[in-house]
Write a structure and sequence with these properties.
- By secondary structure, the chain is mainly α.
- The chain has one domain.
- The protein contains 6 helices and no strands.
- α2 packs antiparallel against α4 and α4 runs parallel beside α6.
- The longest helix has about 35 residues.
- It is elongated.
Amino acid sequence: MCLIKLTFTREVKIARNEPDMAPPPADHTIQQLIKKCRVAFTKCLALPELCKGNWAQKCLLDYNSWVYNAGSVFIPGQESEDPKWIDDIIKGKRNLSLLHQYLMTCKRCAEENTSCEEAMRNVELTIKRMNELWGDVQSRLEKEEMEEGVEDHL
């Protein structure tokens, strides 16, 4: 049986764009969380219920795109002591941790033949949130580059 109340509470927090959805997984690196999510996606892809309408494939494609684009920035960013980076890394880890949890909930619901709709929505919202975080980081990096370029010309 799916944990409807728990995932609904988290879904509401995601929809409101509240950053403190889950405790930061301090014991995992970004790389480890990326790998955990990939393993969870593999498990979801093995379940016909989650492949209807290519849902799992589309989510995996969006996730892989995030990893390709954002992962190359977030992974080295883990070593930074810049407070902006620390906050972004914590948010990235939280989102990856939540994504893993929601994917495992999808898997469990599909295996138990219970409704997966809410868990699937949570996966989609979490990936959307990850992309929004990446957009914010990208904008900040571009702004910092422009400011550095202006300083170099002075």
